[in-house]
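Quick illustration, no need to memorize.
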Amino acid sequence: MKVTVFGIGYVGLVQAAVLAEVGHDVCCVDVDAQKVENLKNGIIPIYEPGLTPLVKSNYEAGRLQFTTDAKAAVEFGEIQFIAVGTPPDEDGSADLQYVQAVAKTIATYMQSPKIIIDKSTVPVGTGDKVEATIAEVLRGRKSTLEFHVVSNPEFLKEGAAVSDCMRPDRIVIGTESDHVKDVMTELYAPFNRNHDRIIFMDVRSAELTKYAANCMLATKISFMNEMANIAEMVGADIENVRNGIGSDERIGYHFIYPGCGYGGSCFPKDVQALVRTSEQIGYDSQILKAVESVNAKQKTKLFELIKRHFNGDVAGKTVALWGLSFKPKTDDMRESSSRVLMELLWEAGAKVQAFDPEAMEETQRIYGSRADLNLMGTKEAALNGADMLVICTEWQSFRAPDFDTIKQQLAEPVIFDGRNLYDPQRMADRGFSYYAIGRGLSIKQG
């Protein structure tokens, strides 16, 4: 099948590469000429495990192409994916200007019937708006070409997006057209062989399903962070609590790990967007507002622990920071806890020596050169001359470090662990002051 994908960002590029991998012919179009040229030369704009070889091999095989020519891209495929960004507006609602711009482009250039698929995360009702936009442009052209607008939200986890796309646990498709159902079933047939993963529903239900899924997961995280704060105050260990409730199959172990707050491109944006949608229809979404509030407060948790340890005075301190991305296996720093922490530390007069396996260039892009930020080549180098170690991201390489080296290189043996990587009693036995999230055994030495 011939498929066009508008937007070569995280969602669009992964979806395009995976569709090409199973044999479809895919044309990717983007307004960023440099990005298009880089992709043709094998330079991938994001870090995602397994994506680079997938893009390169399918581009070389001719099943995947990149262009800035929107007219040619519209002509290329019967199926047109819209996978452009929907950044939050000032009030937190999703900005649909790029989605609507693509809709106008498709309507302007289409010369045959099209199936237009909203792959971007969009508020409920966006399908109706896209349909109205395309219909208006076609009327202006005096065209009666047939088209269908479909909601097909993505459910990809950064760091596992390729495998999620190749082996989806569900494929949600919002349409009431039998023709579209047949086409979409054929498109996704290679991913739907073992058992039927396709769930058909109306467009608005599909749009809400995406937000509901992310908001439910964000709620679980914020709930566990609240439990962690309670555990700390009553002298309990949240890890014991987590194991106790996770064994209940109605709850499960996924997304009940406490930490220093969630970030990324999805959860913060989607919670805010659904809150704004609720306000627009006159509903007070109290749970979602609480989820957002708890998470914002949790991102200051490590800074509060640091201030407590140093009796409120962190000016002049040097902080070794391990982990800058919002989660492992990505270089994405959008809404990451590390950014909140660093900015609070700088405001308090501290310096940061940071290391992350993948997010160093992104950190440089965001913050540029500044005297209070040094990006170090290894996690060990970040320790040199530092007064403390702080962990914001649970990269595998941080889970079993050389604690003797850490103790030798730090001016004071103190660790602030935002991801609960180590056992508090063992750390105390090694002579560390160790602060974790919601663990009653957190101990200040001396």
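The mean pLDDT is 95.
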